[in-house]
Specification:
alpha+beta; 1 helix; 14% strand; binds zinc ion
């Protein structure tokens, strides 16, 4: 199966996973669309939770 071997390239570089700058990982929607205040708060809470766990161990 070679049908999916072709990689999308931008300026000679393989395209990686979309950055968080473009897609909000909480709701998987473009940051340019809609209101993401809730997503932002959720994301912040997740980050703090993760940091708290790291501090424990
Ligand atoms: Zn969002």
């Amino acid at each position: 199966m070679t049908a999916f071997r072709r990689k999308t390239k931008i300026r000679g570089r393989p395209m990686g996973p979309l950055d968080l700058n473009v897609i909000f990982d909480i709701c998987n929607k473009s940051r340019a669309h809609g209101n993401h205040q809730k997503c932002s708060a959720t994301r912040k809470a997740m980050a703090e939770e993760r940091r708290a766990k790291e501090n424990k161990s």
